[in-house]
Amino acid sequence: MFTIIGGDGKEYGPATLEQLRSWLAGGRANLETQAKRVGEEQWRRLGDFPEFSQSGAPQPPAAPAPATATDDTAASQVHVDPKAYADELIARAAPLDIAGCLERSWNLLKANFWPVVGATFVSIVVMVVANMIPIVGMFVGVLLTGVFYGGLYNYYLKTIRAQPVELGDVFSGFTLAFVPLMLATIVSTLLISVGLLLLILPGIYLGVSYIFAYMLVIDKRIEFWAAMEISRRVITAQWWRMFGLVLLASVIALLGVVALVIGMFITVPIYLGALVYAYEDLCNPPNRG
């Protein structure tokens, strides 16, 4: 795990080796970027670390599948073959490290405590208030859950990737992918509800399997149904590991509510961060070999 100093002079991280390789490949960092390992005090050039030496300079990961935009707008969606896209990711992804996801989420929270807690607090409060408004509240839960969470996930993704991020990104779901996130909310909620009525287990399976859908929509601009299918296929390949992460992270989140309600603003970010790190590991895996 590493912490780096971005071009704006701010510290970003902790980030895994794979994430730093991705940042290098994408131009978000270079071998002159100042960095240090977690637990160390000395700052050094990334190029001074053996993992990032010129001779071992990482190559950018290959795109999982070709995508074509439906239009030229900023919020345009892309068409992909869900099976081919998911198969490529499944072949490259390592076994999900449950403890590692939680540990990285905790480190992320420690390194960005007030921004992450503040952003999560604002998002949760706005959702709660919106749900309390007569009549409007009914539509918020049915239509806008994914829009809110899409923006919040986008904030976490940017923070993890050491990209420029601001509080307004929490609501970016309304500007970047409003319709696909809303459709993903409606369809996934309907399918999960039907699954719960059918002996409960199908609903639990789908509830876990669709966790990456909002992230794929907001991060990759993939159309909602393809995003749901990719999420389902990718998670199904490691369903029990993902279920274990969700279960453990949920217990941690609930502890913040049970112990002291305000504690949820610390434990909920750990829960969300763990899910986003799992997304990065399974939906943005590095090339193998």
Describe the structure.
The structure is a single chain. The chain is of the alpha+beta class and about 290 residues long. It contains 12 helices and 6 strands. It has 2 domains: about 1-60, Dna Ligase, domain 1 (2-Layer Sandwich); about 65-285, no CATH class. The protein is about 60% helix and about 5% strand. Helix 7 packs across helix 10, helix 9 (about 215-220) packs across helix 10 and helix 11 (about 240-260) packs antiparallel against helix 12. The protein is globular and about 55 Å long.
Q: Which structural category do the helix and sheet elements fall into?
A: alpha+beta
Instruction: Note the overall shape.
Output: globular
Instruction: Identify the strand order in the major beta sheet.
Output: 2-1-3-4
Helix content: 55-70%
**What is the total number of structural domains?**
2
Question: What is the average per-residue confidence, as pLDDT, rounded to a whole number?
Answer: 85
Please provide the ordered H/E string of secondary-structure elements: EEHEEEEHHHHHHHHHHH
- Unreliable stretches (pLDDT < 50, length at least 5) are 54-75
Tell me the Rg in angstroms: 19 Å
Distance linking N and C termini:
21 Å
What percentage of amino acids are in beta strands?
Answer: 5-15%
- How many helices? The count is 12
Number of strands: 6
Biggest sheet record: 4 strands, antiparallel
